[in-house]
Amino acid sequence: MRRLLTAASVLLPLAAAGGAAHPAGDAPAGDAVQRGAYIFNAAGCLGCHTDVKGGGQPLAGGRALATPFGTFHTPNITPDPVTGIGRWSDADFIRALREGVRPDGAALFPAFPYAAYTRMTDRDLLDLKAYLFSRPAVAAPNKPHDLTPPFSWRFLLPVWQWLYLTPGPVPDDPAKPAAWNRGRYLVDAQGHCAECHSPRTLLGGLDADRYLAGNPDGPDGDKVPGITGAKGKGGVGGWSDGDLTLFLETGLTPEGDVAGGAMGEVVRNTTSKLTADDRAAIVAYLKTVPAKE
C-alpha cells in the first residue's frame, strides 16, 4: 500500500491507559507519576526529545527539526541537573510551558509549542513534571540551533510572544458536551495539533484564519495535510467517525493507505494507545472544525 501523511511531526499525539472517560483537563486516575506518564504521551514528548536516528538516549534531546526559519535541535529534558532540567522548580516548569520563559528569564523559541501547552491545567503540568523527573537522568549537552537572522535573535522573542501567545488555560465551553471539550483539550492543548497542521505567518505565528487547514511548509520540509471538516484532500470531512477513529488506532485511511514517516511513528507510539473514549472525543471535536479548503 502507498505510504502517505508523512508530513506531520504530530497529529493528535495522544496516548492513554484504561477505558474510562475523564474530564477535559484531567489525566486518568493514579498518582502524579502515573498521570504524568499519560500526559507525557499525550504531549508527544518522546519523539521530539529523542534523537533516535543518532542513537540518542530517551529524552536527552539532539533531534534536528528543520523549519523554514532554520534548524532547531531539541533540548535535553531528563532530570540531569547540569545538561537537563533537574534543577527546575515547579514554578520554573510551569512558567516555561505557560509563558515560554526559561528559569534564567530568557524567552524560549516557539519551536517548543508552549503556545499550545499554555492551555494545559496546572495539575497536568505538574504531573508531567513528576513523570519527567522519574526518568533516568542523562548527561547530554544541548546542541545549538542553526537559525538565520532575525529568527536567531532571542531578544526579539518577547515581541513574538506579545503577538501570538495568550497565556493561561482555556476553560471548558459550558454550551458544549463533555466529549467535545475533552477533544478540544487534547487537540489544542496537549496534542498541539495546530502547531503542525496550521500554516504560519511570515513571523512564524500560527495563521488563526487557517486553523488546522494544513501547512505546505511543515517540519523537515514536509507538507502537512489539513484536518478540518473539508472534504477531499483538504480535510477529513468525507471520513466517517469510524474512518477517523480507525486511522487514529491503526494508521489506515478509508482508501486503504497507511500513515508513514513521522505520522506513522505517531500512530505506532501514541494514537494507537488511545482509549476508545478519547478517540471518540477527538472525532467529536474535529468534526465541528469549520471546513477550510
Question: If you had to describe this structure to a student in words, what would you say it looks like?
Answer:
- By secondary structure, the chain is mainly α.
- Helices cover 32% and strands 5% of the residues.
- Strand 2 and strand 3 form a beta hairpin.
- Helix 3 packs across helix 5, helix 7 packs across helix 11 and helix 9 packs across helix 11.
- The N terminus is likely disordered.
Summarize the main sheet.
Answer: 3 strands, antiparallel
What is the CA-based Rg, rounded? 18 Å
Q: What do the pLDDT scores average to?
A: 87
Strand order of the largest sheet: 2-3-4
Q: Helix/strand-derived class?
A: mainly alpha
Strand content: under 5%
Q: What would a concise description of this structure say?
A:
With 293 residues, the chain is mainly α. The protein has helices at residues 32-42, 45-48, 90-99, 114-117, 122-132, 157-164, 178-190, 194-197, 241-250, 261-269, 276-286, and strands at 3-4, 64-67, 70-73, 146-147, 258-259.
What topology emerges from the helices and strands here?
Blueprint: E1 3-4, H1 32-42, H2 45-48, E2 64-67, E3 70-73, H3 90-99, H4 114-117, H5 122-132, E4 146-147, H6 157-164, H7 178-190, H8 194-197, H9 241-250, E5 258-259, H10 261-269, H11 276-286
Parallel strand pairs: 1-5
Antiparallel strand pairs: 2-3, 3-4
Helix pairs in contact: 1-5, 3-5, 7-11, 9-11
Keywords summarizing the entry:
three-stranded antiparallel β-sheet, disordered N terminus, single chain, mainly alpha, 5 strands, 11 helices, 293 residues
